[in-house]
Specification:
The protein is an alpha/beta fold. The strands form 4 sheets. A 4-stranded mixed β-sheet has the order 1-2-4-3, covered by helices on one side. It folds into 4 domains: 84 residues, 2-Layer Sandwich (Translation Initiation Factor IF3), CATH 3.30.110; 91 residues, RNA 3'-terminal phosphate cyclase domain (UDP-n-acetylglucosamine1-carboxyvinyl-transferase, Chain, Alpha-beta prism); 91 residues, 2-Layer Sandwich (Dihydrodipicolinate Reductase, domain 2), CATH 3.30.360; 62 residues, Ribosomal Protein S8, Chain: A, domain 1 (2-Layer Sandwich). Helices cover 34% and strands 27% of the residues. The protein contains 8 helices and 16 strands.
């Protein structure tokens, strides 16, 4: 019997977080390359596999019928040997407020290249700190994937705010034989801008103050400001979403309420990020740059103009190159613009 040859991945490289693990899982299934990752999330306050990461591992295991060792809470290393991704009906329950959108990232691209369609139900957090909110999928990412030949739709069944969670999203994936490349160098004309303050179990004035801050700092018209109370039963939670819809791309910036953080500070977090994006005059923001790398790597080609790449993005490039040997070039064009070329 042949001995499995594992690609060795250092989980502490670069930003040393969960992205190293999630991308390695997706790339492993795509390339059919087994890997061993050590020092998982070594640079985090609670290193090792947590509930969200363990769900991502088990989701990857399920869709590829993989052989896995080390998949327990707190584990600092993992061995993963995949088979081909199989489309089907899957349910993934994080069991905490861990991000459903991050778990989805792990299996989305392998399932896009599977032979049969997939229907996914993911339970956990839908609006978290340090993770894309659900609306990011439907407004920002999926329209760009559609340009690459992908058919992916998602619905928000239940909201899941931190710390209670309890949210649910449903995702339908139609497989595509080949992912097309994408070139995104201009954002085009601004078509629409909107602020949404989602709130549940918290006094309404919190959302009203967030929207007032948006009006004050961005000078948006009242028609752009949406107060959106969420039905009770989802615990307590609040998130401010700022949407920019351009001819070629949409972007989303968010601020999540946290204990001890004033409404104005929540709003300011999203406002500052939006203003930095607008000032850079690029189509692809910091987080979208990170999100686009994996599908472009699967396509084998692509190019986009973005802001200075984050450590997250640089680490992502390293992981992709370790699995695929694919050239990823980052070129500074101006003081605030960077051109990233894949393939």
């Amino acid at each position: 019997m042949l001995q499995t040859r594992y690609l060795s991945i250092d989980g502490s490289q670069g930003e040393g977080g969960g992205q190293v693990l999630r991308s390695s899982l997706a790339l492993s299934i795509y390339t059919q390359q087994a890997f061993h990752i050590h020092h998982i999330r070594a640079k985090r306050k609670n290193p090792g596999l947590q509930a969200q990461h363990l769900t991502a591992v088990r989701a990857a295991k399920m869709v590829s019928n993989a052989h896995v060792e080390g998949d327990v809470i707190g584990s600092g290393e993992l061995w993963f040997t995949p088979n081909l991704a199989q489309g089907g009906r899957y349910r993934f329950n994080i069991g905490t407020a861990g991000s459903t959108t991050l778990v989805l990232q792990t299996v989305l691209y392998p399932l896009l290249l599977a032979e049969h369609p997939s229907h996914l139900v993911l339970s956990g957090g839908t609006h978290n700190t340090a993770a894309p909110p659900f609306e990011y999928l439907t407004t920002v990412l999926f329209p760009l994937l559609q340009k690459m030949g992908c058919q992916v739709t998602a619905t928000l069944d239940n909201y899941g705010f931190y710390p209670k969670g309890g949210g649910q999203i449903t995702v339908d994936i139609q497989p595509t034989r080949v992912l097309q490349g994408l070139t995104l160098l201009q954002r085009g004309e601004l078509l629409q801008q909107e602020a949404q303050a989602l709130i549940t179990g918290i006094p309404a004035h919190v959302a009203e103050r967030e929207l007032a801050q948006v009006k004050k700092k961005l000078r948006w018209a009242d028609s752009c400001l949406k107060f959106m109370p969420v039905a009770s039963g989802y615990g307590t939670g609040n998130i401010l979403l700022l949407f920019l819809h351009y001819a070629q791309v949409s972007e989303l910036f968010s601020g999540v309420a946290q204990r001890g953080l004033k409404a104005e500070a929540v709003a300011e977090h999203a406002i500052v990020a939006l203003q930095a994006y607008q000032a850079a005059d690029v189509p692809v923001g910091e987080h979208l740059a990170d999100q686009l790398l994996l599908p472009l790597a699967f396509a084998g080609k692509g190019q986009f103009l973005t802001v200075a790449p984050s450590q997250h993005t640089l680490t992502h490039c390293e992981i992709i190159q370790q699995f695929l040997g694919l050239k990823i070039q980052i070129e500074q064009v101006t003081s605030s613009q960077y051109l990233i070329t894949v393939g």
